[in-house]
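Table S2 (text version). Query chain:
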Amino acid sequence: MLEGLEAAIQRLPAYHEALPAVVAKQAAVQAGFGGEQELDKVFETYKFPMKYSLFHDISLQSSTHFQVDTLFLTPWFAVLFEVKNISGELLVTQNPPQLIRTSGSGQVTSFKSPVAQLASNCELFKDWLHSRRMSLPVYGAVVLAYVKQRVELSDIDTPFLFPSTVPQFIRSLPKGKIPLLDSYEFEQLSADLCHSHQAYNPAPICKTYDISHHAIQRGVICPACGSIGMKWHFKGWCCKSCQETSRTAHHQAIRDWFLLFGGGMRNRDCREFLGVERQQTAHRLLASMPLRKEGRNRNRTYTLIWNEDSKHT
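Corresponding C-alpha cell output:
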C-alpha cells in the first residue's frame, strides 16, 4: 500500500483533487510502519528466557480475515500487540469505543478504537486456535511507538505500553512450570501460522481513490533525480534531465502500473506506460521481471506476483 501511494504522489499532477487524501494516507501508513519498526527493534535486541516464536504483520482467516501487527507466541500463552503511532494528545474512550486525537493546532479527529480492534483480534485468534483443537491463554496490549505520545485512558483496562516496557510486560504474564504445548505441538503451531498467513494484495490505488487512468503521468522515473520520462536507448534507460543511465529502471515503473491500475498488463499497456515503441522491446522488458504469464501471443497478459520477497528497483 505504501509503495502504491508513493507511486501516485509521484505521478499525479499537483492540482489533482485526490492528491491531498493520498498524501494524508501515505503519511498515516508511513507513521504506522515506523511505529511497528520501533517495536521490532526491541525484539531484535532483547532475549527472552523462554522458547517463543515472533510474527510481524501476520494475516489470518477465522470467521473473518484479521491482521495482527505483532504476535508473540510461547508454549504457555500468546500475546497480540496493536501498535499505534499517532501524534498529538490522545484520548481513548470505552463508551463509545474511540480514539480521539487533538493536534497541536487544536484540530480534533476521531479514529477507530485500538482497544476494540485488539479485543476483536484476540477473539478471532482464539477461534483460529480452537479450529485447530488448540487452546492457549491469549493476551493483548496496545503499544504506543514513542514515549512522546501522550494518552489519557477513560475506563480502559487494556494495557498501554511503550516498546521498552514490552519485555517486562511479557515476563509478568502467568506461566506455569509445565508448558501447555510440548515442543512438537509448539513447532507445529508455529509452522501452521506461517503456512496460514495470507499475503496482503493491495487494492489498486486508482480504484481506491477514484482516480482516472488518464490523470497518471506515464513514463519511467529516473532513480537518480526523480524525473519522469527516461528514454530507452541500446538496451538501457537514459535520463534526459541528469543523463543518468540504468538497465533496470523499468522494474519500478512496471510495479507502479500494477499498484496503480491492477489487473493484467498487456504488451500494449507496457509500451504505452513506459514510452517504448517496439513490441519486441516491451516483451524483453516484461520477461526481465518475475511476472505470471497467461495466454499466448497477442492475448498474453502479465500479472505481478505480490508475494515476491524482493522489490525490484
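Notes on Table S2: The mean pLDDT is 91. The two ends are 17 Å apart (CA to CA).
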